[in-house]
Amino acid sequence: MKKLYISILLLGAHSLSFGQIMPKPLISNDISKIKPLNTNKKPNEKALGTVFWEDDFSNAADWTINNSGQTGAEFGWTIDATSDGWFDPAGINSTSGGNYAELSNGDPTATPGTQATGVTYTLTTAQPIDISTQGTNISLLFEQYGARFNDLQEILVSTDGTSFFPVGDNSDKPVLSAAGGSEYDNPDLKTINLAGLINGATQLWIRFSWTTAFPSAGTNPNVWVAYGWYIDDVRLTTNADYDLVVESSYWGTAGLKYYQIPLTQVAPIDFSANVFNGGTLPMTGTTLNVDVNSGLYTGSSAPATINPLETDSLFTTAAFTPSNASTTTYSVARTLTTADADDIPTNNTFAPISFATTNYVYARDNGVTTGGGTTSNGDMGFETGNLFEIFANQTVEAIDIRLAGGSGGTPVGTEIYARLYSIDASGNFVYMSESAPLVVAGSNLNTNVVMELIPSVDLVAGEAYLAVVGSYDPALIVANAGVTDPQTSFYLDGNDMASSTLYYQTNVPWVRLNFDPAVGIEEKSGDDFAASVYPNPTNGSATVNFNVNSASEVTVTVSDVTGKVIDVLMNEASVSGEQKISFDAASYANGAYYVTIATEGSTVTRKFMKK
């Protein structure tokens, strides 16, 4: 079920370039049925100047509602003190209390879901707001609650009461689903700087609008799901003189964040931030400062003057390169300093960063799993995983994965595999190797599972690779840990890279590269050969690849799920070395098959699918 983040985090000047890899965002269809927590947080009140207009919905007649012809409290906007939607019966914990505005669109948890399609619900101030004595250097603030799915929660304004234009939305919020994400703080204070957007205006109308974010998929009821959107305590204020806002920040190498980095893959790490001046006066000497492990590394950007209503990108002048001498954990603190005292310093802070160098593990996930995980889009198998940039030649031995367990996790008995893809000159993913199938046991859940690649693969510096875990069984649920940027973590809706639909996801599946040379040594020493079948699945031609260490009689057969041999690909008295046998499965019925390779000392079986 496609339940992945769609929000986009800005990379600053750093970006990935992987040829023609441009999969579309994943449209979630698995809503979270976990009851949200009412955190009872009060919004972080900021001294953004003087409040000159406010409305707490105590008088519903002050607003005009257009509910697209829908009737009933569970559809469109309502103004009262009762929560009408399915998501949270308690509603918003706003500062004023009492009445609030609420957006609903049926109940998607019903069978079938009752959400209306093809609708746009709007809530607009009934009368113009006089701003003639305030000027247009003002901001709009309101308290909100709810959650985001595939919907567009948009804020618009008008200076003539007829033409409305968007000034903000909630696309910066993560999607809430069984894969992760969260509801908004209750309440969450939203601030939109209107300066520069309403120049010359003397009056203003405010509108809150709800519809789907995916109109091209408008026939799909899942794009019309609404958790609910609650609004209260809408205000207009004059702006502060000095107000820097961190809009986005970046850290990483070649556009990717790595939370575990093998000593052999250590490379320079860059830091940057996009900073907006929401005040009325220039901010001088604006500098991004980075400190790693309390002075091990300190870096700063060149001081910049940021004019009112402008955004500047700040980059540290020197990258930080971790030591490759021994494994270390690094803690990063980032600050923003200016020559002018910021009136509102609370909106220009950064979250702390922690990552580590390791002996063998290369990880994009942050190691902190969320509830649920990436799972199937209905009744199909799927693959999910992450891109990795390689900075030094090295042999990858395994792919580490983590499966979600517990209620709603991966069922015991699910068969899974891990695969590795390279990227060709056209930007296409190309199959390289995979693990033997693993039938999931209880001990494989909620823990790191090492899946040996057969054969291991020599990775090349300067290239990028995609590591995935997959299953032909839609019951698989892969743990997620952290978020990343679009076009760097992927979801394949199906199991055939050539014909299935590829999406990007911005939550990070726990899928890692493992360079440990000790992986599989015991097993390899007892095997005469390693084997794989590719492409898998296939709709026609396929190849069996295996290696026989010493001359042996070899038989290669194809069997169906009943064990009946339907094809003999090889029956030779003396075979040695690497073998590649191409065969045509076009005449096979769709389904699962097994290639069995038998020598005088060993037998191995590989499963493949005919589509």
Number of separate structural domains:
4
Low-confidence stretches: 1-22, 33-47, 522-528
Structural class: mainly beta
Number of helices: 1
From the N-terminal CA to the C-terminal CA, the straight-line distance is 21 Å
What name is given to the CATH topology of the largest domain?
A: Jelly Rolls
**Radius of gyration from CA coordinates:** 28 Å
How many β-strand stretches? 42
Helix content: under 10%
Strand content: over 45%
Shape: globular
CATH class of the largest domain: Mainly Beta
On the 0 to 100 scale, the average pLDDT is: 87
Report the CATH architecture of the largest domain.
Answer: Sandwich
Largest sheet: 12 strands, mixed
Brief digest:
The protein has 611 residues and is mainly β. It has 1 helix and 42 strands.
Can you tag this structure with a few keywords?
1% helix; 4 domains; 611 residues; Immunoglobulin-like; twelve-stranded mixed sheet; disordered N terminus; mainly beta; Jelly Rolls; six-stranded antiparallel sheet; single chain
